[in-house]
Structures are given as C-alpha cells and as structure tokens.
Amino acid sequence: MPNYGKENFKESNVNYLNKDFGALKESLMNYAKSYFPNTYRDFNESSPGMMLLEMNAYVGDVLSFYIDQQYREMLLPLAEERRNIINLAKMFGYKVKPIVPAYVDLTFTSNVAASSGDNSKIDYTDGGTFSPGIEIASAANSDISFTTLEHIDFRISSSNDTDTIGDVDTAGLASTYTLTRTVRAVSAIEKTISFQVGLPVKFRNLTIPDTNVIDIISCVDSNNNNWYEVDFLAQDKVPIQTHYTDDANRTSAYGNSLNDTDSDVAVPYSLTYIVSPKRFTRETNENNTTSMIFGNGVLKDGQVVDEGFINMEQVGIIVPGQTNDLNSSIDPLLGDEYSTLGETPNQTTLTITYRVGGGIESNVPSNDLNSAPTSLSPGNGNTAARLLTVKNNNPARGGKDEEDTIEIREKARAFFTTQNRCVTKEDYEARVMNIPAKNGNIAKVYVTRGVQDDTQFDQRLIELQQTFSNNITDIINSISTDTDVQTIVKLTDFVNNNLQQMSAVESSNFNMSTINIYVLGYDNQKQLVGNPHSGFLETSDNLPITLKTNIKKYLENFRIMTDTVTINDGYIVNFGVIFDVIAEKYADKQKVKFDCIQKIIDYFNINKMQFNQPIFKSQLEFELMGVEGVRSIGHVTITQKNDYNSDVADADLNKATYRYSYNNDESFEDSSINGGGTIGYGYKYNFSNALSDDGTIVLPPNTGTPTVFELKNPNQNIQGRVR
Questions:
Q1: Angle ∠(159,395,370) on CA atoms, nearest 5
Q2: CA distances from 470 to 457, 458, 615, 689 (A)
Q3: What is the pLDDT of residues 633-643, one digit of tens each?
Q4: pTM summary value
Q5: Residue 381 lies in a domain
Q6: Are residues 501 and 527 in the same domain?
Q7: How open is the CA angle 684-690-691, to the nearest 5 degrees?
Q8: Domain residues for 542?
C-alpha cells in the first residue's frame, strides 16, 4: 500500500499577491511543474494544456479587476461611477443637487407717506409687506425667471436699506419717502402637482416627473395637513419659521416680548420647532427627477399629536378579503413602538408645490431683472402701497448645471467634516453668526464655557429687583391724572418687562449653565444694541426676547446633551477721541483735520471691533502719521470725559465727546444706575485707569463683562485740532 504520509507531499506554495494575467500564468506554470512533473510536461505556447492554463489566468485576471473595481467604488475618494458617488454622498448626509440655481439680490422701491407735523419722518405704518414668491422675468431671456425668497417689508428698516425723500409739499416738507428694500431671489419658477394616494404603503415613493427640481415649498393633503421635509425620516423635530405678519401674538417686527414694540432691532421671523409624524425626505434620481419618500407608519385611531412621543402603528400587508383594519395588519416583527420613521399618507390627495429652474444660463447680468410687478398688493391690507421698481444692481451668480462627480465627492467630504454639532466655543460662535438673518440680526457674539455660580445668579436678580423698586415709584408719581393713559401704558410695559426678566433669571438655572453666549445686534443705523441693565422706562437698547428665543431654539439642534445654553446681552462702552496734530508748514489745515477724522472713523469701523478687543493707541497714532500733511502727533486721547486735558485752551476741545448712561458693577466707575446720560449709549468706563503701563493700549473690562468698544456717533464723538 502506498504511503501517503505528509512527508511524501510538497507544501503548497501559492502566491496570493499575483493578480494580473502574466503573474497568474507564471504562477500556474510553476505550480504544474512543482506538483505534476510527471503528468504534464508540454509547456509549448501552442499546446492544449497551455490554452487551458492561459484561460484560467484570464478568468483570474478579470475577477481580480472586478473585485478591485468594486472595492474602489465603495470608497468616496476613488469612486468613478456617478451612481455610486451619489449613494456614498447620501451616506455622508449630503444631498446631491440635480441643478444649481443662481441667486441674486433684488432691490425693490416703494413710496410711503410722511408723518404729519413740522418734524416729519417716515411713516412706516404706511408701508406694505409683500409675501415671498414674486416672480421677476429676465429682460434678455423670458424663459428665465427669478422668485423672491423673503418678505419684502417696507415697515421695517435696516442699515442696508435706503430711505430718501420722495415728494415735498408747498412748505418744503417731505410728503412722501421712497424706501428701498433688498431681498434674495432664486432662478426658479413655482409649479404644482397632485398625487392620488390609496391604501398605506411603507416608505411610499412619489416621483415628480419634472427634472431640475430645486426645492419643495409645501406638501398638503386633502385634510389641509402639512407634510414637512426633513433630512432623514428619523428626524421628528421640524423647524417652523413664522413671519410677524402671520403671527397672532406679534404686532410688529420690533419688540422685546411678544406684545411690545420697544426694541430697535427688527426680528422678522420667529423660530420654533414642532414634533410631526407627517414628514418626508427628498432624493435626486439618476435621471435628475426628484423622489419624495414618506414614513412607514400610520397614527393610531383618535390620537392627538402633541410635543410628546407619537405612538405609531407599523403598516403590514393587508390580508386579501379582509377590511382595511390596520390593527390586524401590524408588522409582527415590529409591532407597536414609539419614535418610528414617520407617517405614510393613505386615502388622500397630496398637493405638492415646488420650484424648477437654475442652470448656468440663469446667471443673468446686472440690471436685467427690471420688470416691476406693480399690480401686486401687500399682504397687510394696505392697498395703497405698491412696488414701484425693481432691479438687480449686481449680476446673478452661482447658477450651473448638475454637479459633476468631482464636485459631489468634494462637497460630500466637506459636509461630513462639519458634523452638525457644537462642542467648542468656536462651534457655538460660528453657529450663532450663521443663524438665518430673518430670525434676527446678530452683530457680535462671544461665548464662554464654564459653570456660573450662585453668586452671579443672586447678583443679577438683586440688580433687577433694585432697578424695579427704584423706578416704579417715580413712574407712579408722574401720573398726574387718571387719564394719563400714556404713562399708565409705560408703567404696564415696564412691570411686564421686569417680571419677564426676573422669570428668565429664575428659570435659567445658573449653576447648571455651561455655555454662556453674549450677543449684540445692529439697529437701522448700524449701531450696536445690547444692554443687560436697562434704564428707566427704556428697553430699546435691549435685544428682543424673540431674537434670544430664536437663537436658543436654533442651537438646540447642535448642542451636546450636557450643555445648557444661556443667551445674554453683551456690554457696550462708547467713547470719544480727542486728537491734537501738528501739520506741515504749507498744508491745508482744514483738509488735514478732515482726513484725520476720516482715518479715525475707518480705524474704529464697527465691523472690526470684537468682544474684549483692546484699543491700540500707538497703532492709531501710526495711522494718523500716515495722513498727508501731518508732521507730528501732539496726543491722541480715548475718553468719556471733557476734562481730559486742562492745559488745552481751545474751547472746541473742552466739549464732552460722550455722555454715558449706565454703569455696571465695581469693574466700572461708580455712578447711579441711570447716570444722567443719554439713553442708548453704553457703560461708564475709566479709560485713564484702563491704560497699559506704557500708556499705548486701552485694555477692555474684565472677561466677566464681555464688552465691545464702539465709536457711536463720529460727528459728536471725535474732536480735534490741527496746529
């Protein structure tokens, strides 16, 4: 009997690194020579055995290629097929756009009446508000239209708007004003389609036949229920943005609370989040059509949707011959559960409104969009208000055809790196500054991370109570008669505002807060607004509560679970600049003075000033030395006082450049809470004590009171002379 022991067999020597045809052929030949030396010896290229060997090498080469290729297509940086790149982008959370629309800023004008009296001003109540969706056709190409994305609001004004005198009466007083408003528009037109929906189906897929769908505006069923688009079906919270004209609780875009109008900062939209089972996701198909994918469940009979969990029934297969009893068709693998993937529509008609457009041809030149829709009436019932003109001062930009594979790959990677979360202080600052402008205008933001102790809580509460008790008596004493309605209204507003602030402090749970966000806004003159310690009957220098609420709700989507967010007003310290320069012998002193003032204004441009940023006097002096005609600098003084330099005889230099209104705490100068100064200015600050040892740097207050230095009114706050 032959011995088949292990010692009579050679160990197999297979090289698994051989993947191409030549290497596989060579490996097969060596294998045959090693293990079948007596069986096959004809390795001539034309022999039948070599044919079989090469065929095996060919099959191995092809299989190796397909394996490598499929593996490459599973990696986003290496994938080449568009279908695979789109699917990988979805895995990273990035939604591929079928086409990219162009965006443009449209400038609309309208006339409003002036207020009566000798000191006539703009009567903003005479202005109109126009809803989004106004279409403006291109003059060069009538097939291209742009649709407004925002309300056109002539009842509010910002620093970017322009208000000029329109007509004057016989006395030379303004009778009308021409208001200019700039809104965002997209190169698209609105369309509507309806789908008849029968029995419930899991993850129902409805495809809009139009290509190049930019976005879906609304989806409404036969019972007038709204269905909301979400990023993914497990997302049950849906953001709702309500314009103040559609909000029964708000009478104006301005306001510190829901019913007052005391703020200088406009907040057009209120942001809130609702829990809704009626939701869908949107996906772009390979042929550039758009599909809507709905959930996998239906609401239980009689259930009322609230802010809590939504109990859904999973939809199974309807048993033939039985009635459509959903209780009998529950998926046995899933059964009843909370937090499902949303509701699926059934036995209804869905009406879907969407936008179509975009492409590279939508990049129209400037002044191409000028066909004013003068026939439109505003939504506030003021039929006298009309849109007069419209134009695009700048060309439309951003429009291009469908994203190519390289763009999808890079945008998906960039989208993934953002991670949609807030962890560091920088994350929170970036998120707050990127809140949509329609939810409130944020000028500056500063974030601290840490735990606030009970001392801070008690101090804040004492300050509010003291302010209330000190001023309520004065208000009551000012009431001369029972008919002093205006004063009574002020009293009511003051009491309500203080109670709201105290309630906010009590409910904020200071010793649990880890993220403290300080914000400042801009008023319509692009001046900073924000003041944690409001003065007597004056709340216009406070940021609206609506704005703070919007920020807090917006951050709920990004903060980590253990972070508690507190929104506070930032601090503002206004100041004046006194300068004394010596000019060249033959220089025009008036021009030199004007140029020096302009240089100071540019240096303290509010866009450059940040929280806790010091003032470098040496750098300012260096800038003034660069002014043509300046020979030397006598001095440059940053101050809030008028007795900065008793040696100066020039009467112009003894004027007060600034009147403070409020003090803060021991870190600022002692003064009464009102300070006897001008409402709207910031806190009193001792600039002489804040100088560095070498006198070249004005240091900001301590980090416990995040502060921005502001040159509020350059015409009054800058004084100087040229010798």
A1: 80
A2: 20, 18, 35, 30
A3: 988 888 876 44
A4: 0.62
A5: yes
A6: yes
A7: 140
A8: 419-568
